[in-house]
TrEMBL record:
Regions crossing the membrane: 219-240, 252-276, 452-472
Top-level taxon in the UniProt lineage: Bacteria
This protein's UniProt keywords: Membrane, Transmembrane, Transmembrane helix
Protein name: PepSY domain-containing protein
Keyword Membrane: yes
Amino acid sequence: MSNAAVSGARAPRWRQWLLRLMPWHRRLAILACVGIFSWAGSGMLHPLMSFMQARPATMSPPQQALPLEELLSPAAVLGAAGIDKVQGLRLVQIEGEPYYQARLPSADEPRYWHARNGNDADVLARHAEALARHYLASDEPLAYAGTLTGYKGEYAFINRLLPVARVDTGRENRLRLYLDLYHDRLGTLVDQRKAWFSGFFQTLHSFGWLEAAGPLRPLLMFILLACVMSATLLGLGIFVARKRAVSGLRRWHGWAGLGLALATLSFASSGAYHLLHKQRAEPMPRPFHANFAVADLAAAPEQAWLLPGESLYQLSLIELDGQPVWRAQGNQYGVMDSLHYLSAAGDEMTDDTPRRYASERLDHYAQALGLGEGGEPAMQHGFDHEYGFVFKRLPVFKREYTDAAHTTLFIDPLDGALAARVQDADRLESWVFGYLHKWELLGLFGNNVKHAVVALLGLAHVLLAVIGLSLLRRSSRRAS
């Protein structure tokens, strides 16, 4: 009779019951090790990915003063090209020249016309490359590599912006940039190192290799997470029930498992909750698309549209009350930011224009989502616990609703896109994932400390699993 059996026979009934569960601990642990090697192993890389992330020289879009002298009207330029409807229009400066950039229905890439001579201009690549040079603060050779219209591979959903133009550098690390040409925003930067780490992380941590398997992917992940939690709880019970392990390695395994148990349950339970929340997420409503009649744009932008001492670096159309309105953003006297709205004819709009515009766009999405009346829209300029960095867009208009889920909607003022929909379930999941999975509380001691602790915990889980498999192998040899 084995020592474990002898000790089990003499133990109180509750201890005997727990010791009889040891075979189940071993069986579940085999499956749990698959999850641990995948999640803890790749989780160790996440802090390294953040540390090695390629970073731009600036995060702010260009702020070059737009030339407003001797411009033709959009109606004259686009009408001559046979364009009668556009979904978006703005004045941009590319290599010192003014162009109208139009977003046409059913087109992924913008079209350009010279704003002074009206000629159709093939400057998309030049625009993308100039924008990339701005974010890199470099004059190095660059090459436009096409437009991406969906999330895939190295450009994942977390980057949020679509469509985006890809621009490649000639650097040894093959750095490339993904850029939103409609608003001059940076989606992300990717080099070969980040591409490899991201691909490895998505394959192991998100089970990207099962992406095409549909519901099988989350089901397998749930099973493995359940095995991790069950094996951990059984291991704790066996550690308490057994007075003393037979070998020193078993004692090390028991004590290490006890020390890591809370972390293991924290990671696994929050991961399962995160996965369940994603499966239950409701689809977002269809995006709003403006629709402007080119004939209504008979006035050309001019210097008279400026405020005293103002220079504009953004001039784009928004839709308000079904009519085109120019959104003019710049600075006054070089020291003060400016934002004002003008009619299609160039007349100044009233001060309540931003609020009315926000209300219209928010009402569009609230109606699609079946929400009731909301509060007053507010402008949000920074990320917080509710509207986090993951949503990318800033600034945004925000409105809170009084429905049962306490919904808050956030929209992008540039194009009226729904940037985020946050409900009570999202707030709870965000807190659980932030504090129980990513251990954001450690951020109080600095990101380096947080990343180091999380990476060490991942390594500790991998080593614990290796020791457990080694003990299982020894047990199998003795049994044979």
